[in-house]
Amino acid sequence: MSEPPSIVFVVDDDASIRDALKSLIRSVGLRVEIFRSPREFLQWKRPDVPSCLVLDVRLPGESGLDLQRELAEANIHIPIIFITGHGDIPMSVRAMKAGAVEFLTKPFRDQDLLDAIQVALERDRAGRQRQAETAMLRERLELLTPREREVLPLIVSGLLNKQVTAEIGTTEASVKVHRSQLMRKMGAGSLPALVRMAEKIGISGSKR
After folding, report:
1. Mean pLDDT in the chain?
2. Which of 3, 38, 93, 143 could be disulfide-bonded to 67 (CB atoms 3.0-4.6 Å)?
3. Mean per-residue pLDDT, 61-88
4. What number does CATH give the domain 7-133?
5. Cα angle 29, 33, 34; round to 5
């Protein structure tokens, strides 16, 4: 199954810059969509594909930094590359602390922007993959019985079957069955694999 095409979004109020960036990004085979303002960008229905945002810092009305904060508050995770003709150190520090991939001051080299775009798209692909893996593991977790869910954190904490038996008040034979079943349902071929899966969905074993 081939990966869906990536999209680069550009938000800049200067038409000449929008057109120049569109041509540059298209020249390396990437799809690009341009917008004049944050509002226009937010109103556009974005496909669920790997993407990143090339965003001017200084815009009429809502600034690029305002949009960055608004996206974060809305739990919209899209890697951002800031561009500006009037940047300063506090502004760049604020942007980077909030998760921006890069902060480029105009005029910047075309290759610097293209490199930043590739980094941003790879970050988004990786994030989407992690989300998909977590969703799959949560679906598998739903297949476990209440008893298997009780046993899971005890097993990933490193307790032996006889110790788990003492914790939950059952037989060691039952624990062996629960252990085998939950590992099968979670798709874990080994205890270390099960531990990694549990960590991804926020289950951390702790000895009591």
Report:
1. 91
2. 38
3. 90
4. 3.40.50.2300
5. 125
